[in-house]
Write the structure tokens for this entry.
Amino acid sequence: MSDQFWLVVQYPLKSAKGSQRDNWLKDKVMEYLEIALAEANLGHVDGFDMGNCISDPKKYALNLFCVITEEERSIALVKRVLRESRLDYTRIKIATMPYGEEDATYSLKYAYKKGVTDFSL
């Protein structure tokens, strides 16, 4: 079992390419999370994808991927950074999965509203 996890922050989008604001949001979230995760010695931002959801091609999402070491602390840190930086915290989903495991799937750890239980890329 690995001591690392994938963490993904997902924002819903209205189109596959996103708007100018969506691109600004992607850049800011990646910048803020990279700094916060590095300072806390919890991990790093590993990249992003933007476009159609795999599970439903009619929906679009921005996914920001991080490699983290401590799941609970990292989730709390990500939530705090996005909330305090006013980076559309009220629209996010956060999910994690073990790093480097072939058959692993993401499990939802936080959703912007109660009752949301599903997560897919």
Remarks:
- Residues 42 and 104 are 21 Å apart (CA to CA).
